[in-house]
Amino acid sequence: MAHKKGQGSVRNGRDSLSKRRGLKAYGGQAVTIGSIIVTQCGTRYSPGRFVRLAKNSSIFALVAGKVYFDQGGKRINVLPDDATATAIG
User: Fold this and answer.
1) Which PANTHER family does its entry note (predicted)?
2) Is the pTM for the entire model greater than 0.85?
């Protein structure tokens, strides 16, 4: 038997960094083109008008405008500014 404890690794010395998921822009807040509105796992929030779902399920804005929610706060939309709306058509 050993008289001293060996210098093994600590079993519970690990802790992952938090991912900072959640809403990045709230209702009524202005966003620019490409701004991330939500980072999420899966589709807790679904994309609406003028937003898209990224590969990692983040939702980002396609146009500059203001964020608004509908369907009980589960669908995210962007209401475009006047200049952007005329450019899109």
Assistant:
1) LARGE RIBOSOMAL SUBUNIT PROTEIN BL27M (PTHR15893:SF0), RIBOSOMAL PROTEIN L27 (PTHR15893)
2) no
Q: How many domains would you assign to the chain?
A: 1
Of the candidates 56, 11, 10, the one whose C-alpha atom is nearest the C-alpha of residue 36 is 56
CATH number of the domain that residue 65 is part of = 2.40.50.100
Q: Would 48 be classed as within a structural domain?
A: yes
Domain housing 74: 22-80
Kindly list the distances between the CA atom of residue 27 and the CA atoms of 12, 23, 37, 64, in Å, as whole numbers in the listed order.
Answer: 41, 10, 10, 14
Instruction: Identify whether 6 is part of a domain.
Output: no
Cα dihedral value 45, 67, 30, 60, nearest 10: 40
Measured on CA atoms in the order 73, 75, 76, 81, is the torsion positive or negative? negative
* Domain contains 17: no
When pLDDT is cut at 50, 70 and 90, the band that residue 75 belongs to is very high
